[in-house]
Every structure is written in C-alpha cells, then in structure tokens.
Amino acid sequence: MTIADFLQFMFRLTVSNSTLLRDLPSLQRELGPNKQMLIPYSREEVELLSMTQTNVKKKGGFTKLVTGMFDTIYFEHLLAFAMKTYSTGNKLILIASSEDEFIYLRRNNTTHVYINQRELGVLTPDDKLYNTRGQLLATIDGADHLPNHSVFIRDKNMGFVNNPKFRTTTTSRAFSLLSQMNDEDTMIFLALTLMNLVEEAQLSKKL
Fold this sequence. Notes:
Blueprint: H1 3-12, H2 18-35, H3 43-46, E1 49-59, E2 64-72, E3 77-85, E4 91-96, E5 101-107, E6 110-115, E7 118-123, E8 128-130, E9 136-140, E10 148-153, E11 156-162, E12 175-177, H4 183-201
C-alpha cells in the first residue's frame, strides 16, 4: 500500500469510524513482521488453509490486541492477522495474505468490510453482506455455537468454514468448498469466513 493509496483509503471512510481509523496504521505495523513470513498466496493454497494458529501474541489492558498467523495443513504460514478489541465492544480486524488485505471495522454490531482499500460492503448483525449499493451479496450462518458456518453467495451454497472451537484430530482444514468459484466470489467467500475464523479461534475450545 503506497502512501497515496493509504491516504485515499482513509479519506473514503466515514468520520464515525475516526477512532478505528486512527489505530489502523499501528495495527498494520503490528501485523508487519508476521506478514513477512507468509508463503506466496494462490487459489490452490486456500483449500489447504488449516485452523492451526502460530506465533499468537496477546496484549491486555483497556484495549486488547491479538496477533498471529494461520498455517496450511503442511505447516506453512499462509495468513497473518491482528485484532484490536475496544472496551466499547467495537473491533478493528486486519487479515492479510502475501497478496491481499482484508480490513473489518465493527461498530454497534455492524461491520464495514474492505478488501485492498476498496469497500466491499457492510455485514449486518443478521450475517448478511450488502454491497455499497444496498444489494445483498452473500450470507453466512455465523453463530458461534455451530461447528461450521455455511456461506451462500447469490443464493448458492459455496461451502463452509469450520469453527476452531470444535476442532478435532480429523478436522483440521478451515474450509470445505462445495462449488467452483470465480475470483470475485472467492474474495467474497474469504471476506466472510476469515473474520469468523480469526474471532472464533480466540474463544475457548468446545469440550
């Protein structure tokens, strides 16, 4: 991300997210060292993503910070993440591969989703993703008590992301894909599922 691109991206965001915006550069710096260790991203690697976290670091206090990486089933670092949780319950989440960057700004249970500085849309509390024109793009069954979360893009079941709380020795992969996806649908699928993966991985494991 160049300085010009970053300034344009900051300008496009609403003033109501000013606190989250102010913390975005520092969160990118927190993520930087892990991002440098990622393997090159490819569509094939997505299906190899596991629920295994590595290099996880947590900082407590008034604002909580978690950083780490997710590996492939072959123990290669594929994704880096940084998540900041505020005392108000708002969250700023940054997830990156070697090629792409996903940013999530959550206020009052509504999440603004950005991919590579471009606004994808808004994820509502009922787990529906709308684009900037108010059109429904996709849905995810994101309830934390479920062992997996199905994703529907334009009313088609594309697959699901597994919940790390329910991880067993026989289910280590993060995704189960049911349909072939083009590049656009793949990015929508990742935007919906990666946030769930990162958040649920920080919850206590289901016994």
